Records
---
Amino acid sequence: MQLKLFLEEEAAELGVRLDNQAIDQLWAYKDFLKEYNEKVNLTAITDDEGIVTKHFLDCLTILPYLGQNSRVVDVGTGPGFPGLVAKIARPDLDLTLIDARGKKVKFLEEAAQLLGLEGVSCIHDRAEDRLKVPGYAKGFDYAVSRAVAAMDKLAGWCLPFVKPGGQFIAMKGPNFQEELDAGARQIAKLGGKVDKIVELNLPSDLTRNLIIISRR
Ligand code: SAM
């Protein structure tokens, strides 16, 4: 099956409608990522099918859990996963991308410009340092993060960004329970409470668990 059609259909299975503009932007993003990856290491996955299944479809899983017009921060976004993929599919989101590596943030700035995205801030900083900058702590409806750190550490980098009543969505693999147990005290100390765990099977045979944590 044609890869664009596959992406559209599999996204719909996840409850995400991709219009033609979103699909064209995702394609341009994929091509730019592959081109840039030749000079700066951004991803080990470089084939079209891998990028579509292991990056794009995986990143789209968070969308049904993000409210309309919400403010979202993606902590340790790397080349924009999951934040930039989510923003392309849902232009209503106000997105802040944070990464500690300057080269990755330069890529993000160029990608956002190339795609003509509005409402995207690309921040070169460590999450824990950015939290000290006025407006960041408790400044977001949602914090999201994929493949950045174990839950005990990650909770400390993500939950403080979330407003009371907002949520932190951690994208985790099959061994999440062990990590969650190890991070339970830290999560509680930060005013967090696990609301829901969503298990999803993706076409790449990847099992994705979304750990959704609310902040009091
Ligand atoms: N989230 C992306 C993904 O799923 O492909 C990137 C994952 S990559 C394995 C981890 C990223 O987290 C790196 O780009 C790294 O620079 C960033 N990172 C690690 N610790 C961080 C911190 N304390 N604050 C901000 N970024 C951090």
---
Amino acid sequence: MTKIKKIAVLTSGGDSPGMNAAIRAVVRKALQENLKVMGILRGYEGLINNDFIPMSSKTVGNIIQRGGTILKTARSEKFRTEEGRRIAYENLLKNKCDALIVIGGDGTFKGARIFIEEHNFPIVGLPGTIDNDLYGTDMTIGFDTALNTVIEAVDKIRDTAASHERIFFVEVMGRDAGFIALRSGIACGAEAVLVPEVETDLKDLHNRLTNYMAKKKTSSIILVAEGDDAGGAFGIKKEMEKFGGEFDMKVTVLGHIQRGGSPTAYDRYLASRLGVAAVEALLDDQRSIMVGMINRTIAHVPFNQTIKHHKDIDRKMLNIVDILNS
Ligand code: F6P
């Protein structure tokens, strides 16, 4: 086993608030362990294009509070090919890197696992995505900030919805997962939450809206994950219109606003803890794991597990939405 002297770090896939805090923690912990650190620009794309930059304590100064990622990010098509991964490996050797830390989501870890299989190169991953859809960690870096962005926006929508006695379908991110919709739905007192994991019963939703109006609720907010089977918020509104009725309905799509902004205290804390733990894991000869946090304890989860297992939403939480809006 080669002794690790120099590591590289990259961010990949959709960005998330807290990625900078994670980069900072990786760099500073590595320097403290007398390791050299290289940053790779634009994720796996930069690995292939040899976009390596030296990292010092200073290069990560004043970034813990900033959203986005100073290393930039990308979704690399070339890294999906064997040839692309071979070039990436050669660049890691050229830059004398002995190990790599990747910060990203499911796609990032799938790429990492194939790379390790082909080149036997140590990689440790950190869960960075606002979607929270990674098995092996209670929360991903960026999820909490995205939730706070959503509730701030929905609170504002609630003001105007109540004034006009309207129904709003608010679309939040989550192409394949309903974590953002469900958690923020509870936090902002939504009247209903629609998620990709559960087939939407259109008739039932229409009945509910009819009841709410009959009960003279001043407003209804329906949180819709973008991956919901009825085609997001616009799709649901269209479906509700087919039933007829006198509802005054509006749609707001929150979009990429959810991916930006200064990370919350929790995301900064999580990213800092996981960044330190990732360097420790590499020094402890771990080579194909994601570092997560389960029940407030650091967890080492093999990439094979994070990829194989699907993290499901807690369906009981959908009942809580119903109980609390009655
Ligand atoms: O970051 C995850 C995610 O927000 C998904 O929920 C969403 O569908 C996707 O990224 C959109 O990303 P992009 O616009 O970068 O393709």
